[in-house]
Amino acid sequence: MIKVYVWFFAMVLCFRAEAQGLLIDKASRISFFSEAPLENISAVTEKAASALDTGRREIAFKVAIKTFAFRKRLMQEHFNENYMESDRFPHATFNGKIKGPIDWHQDGTYPVTVTGMLDIHGVGKRYMIPATITVRGESVTAAATFNVRVADHDVKIPRIVIKNIAEVVEIAVSATYGK
Predict the structure, then answer these.
(1) Is 15 a domain residue?
(2) Domain assignment of residue 4, yes or no
């Protein structure tokens, strides 16, 4: 019986030590901007989930496509039904590895590169993204802006609206994690 208690407490303590490096943000912000000759298109969500593992230097994001909000309801409808097919491909994800020096215990702003797989519309593509990690007191912030070519993720733009939607979309991501 004593062996069971020792094993249980050892496992709890080991799990707790492992979990200390895992930070979660359930309200990460992701926005995109498409500049086109006829009309600019932008959307934002603050309902993305993100996890940052400081020990393994890994970061992940997951967002439900239908949570992106647009200025115009019709844009949102077309985005979900015609382009992103969000009933068929409900989420976009990113899983990456952080490269660059960071002292997780020292306040500061750290420019890093995140290399990982972005999966949009059921198509994964590898990206190398410049990002910034900011450590301030009990908070860690991650932010990045990068471009995505919609054709790389098999998002089809009908020829009739080709002037309305850019081939390259700017993505901005930010997450704030509490320690």
Answers:
(1) no
(2) no
pLDDT averaged over every residue in the chain: 87
Model pLDDT for residues 80-133, shown as the tens digit of each residue: 988 899 999 999 999 999 999 999 999 999 999 999 999 999 999 999 999 999
| pTM for the model | 0.84
- pLDDT of 4 > 50? The answer is no
Of the candidates 74, 73, 22, the one whose C-alpha atom is nearest the C-alpha of residue 50 is 22
The domain that contains 151 carries what CATH number?
2.40.128.110
Q: Is residue 67 part of a domain?
A: yes
Q: Which domain holds residue 96?
A: 23-178
Residue bearing tokens 């603050």: 46
Residue pair 171/145 in contact (Cβ under 8 Å)? The answer is: yes
Question: How far is Cα 63 from Cα 32, in angstroms, rounded to an integer?
Answer: 13
Please enumerate in sequence order all residues whose Cβ is within 8 A of that of 65, keeping only pairs 6 or more positions apart, or say none: 80, 84, 86, 89, 90, 91, 92
